Amino acid sequence: MQDLIDEARAAAEQSYSPYSSFRVGAAVLCTDGSVVRGCNVENASYGLTICAERCALFAAVAQGKHAAALAVTCPDGDQSTPGTLMPCGACRQVIEELLIDGGRIFVDGVGEFSKADLLPHPFVLKGSV
Q: 26, 30, 113, 125: most buried by Cβ count inside 10 Å?
């Protein structure tokens, strides 16, 4: 999955993060073998900011694709503090819903995870399962 992490690193270079100076990149490996990239895009109205993971996953859905794996990288995170490199809670919920069952998440500098590793008790809307 090094190639997917490399795609995430390339995506981080496109980050628009003038407020936090915290670049994040993500890459989704789709079931058809294609890769869709995403980066964090900040906004002066912080609530309008989108994380790289959600950007990439939403772009894959918009292209009619299904996410089989996800890689994420935070080149400005503190490598000695893995928590600064991990997906946020909102992204974990989106990963739970949009990454296929059995899909893997690769966090650059931290390791490989399953959906259950990241979010053991996800929110599920009644009737959506």
A: 26
